[in-house]
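Could you help me review a protein record that somebody else here produced? My question to you is simply how this chain folds and whether the tokens agree. Thanks in advance; the entry in question is below:
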Amino acid sequence: MLNSKFWQAFFAIAPLAMLVITLIGYAFFIFSVVTNMPEIEQSGSDPAFFVLGNIGVFMLLVLLTVLISLGSLIFYIIHAVQNQNLADSSLLVVWILLFVFVSGIGQLIYWIVEILGKNRDNPVSERTS
């Protein structure tokens, strides 16, 4: 699974994509609450019920974002530890600290530099031998 191009790309791009989707969802939620508040108050229904009902969808997006980010963190820490290019190097510690403190962006940078960059340097025939 660590060498699968699909999972490498997914765990590099998905945390940032989910963050963007969650922020857009939050903006949509706030916009819908503000624009629909007069109609909700005039209809006689409880405005708190409308707001709290819509927070559930937003919280699911946040939970999904957290789970994908945690999975990405674990995936890329394991990948960095098993990366032969980083063995016996202080770069391994730098990458792990980058993953922990700059989660999402750190994984994307690692994917571009260490995975995509190294694959361009080593043609397929050299990697398989």
Notes: The two ends are 20 Å apart (CA to CA). The chain has one domain: 5-122. DSSP finds five helices and no strands in the chain.
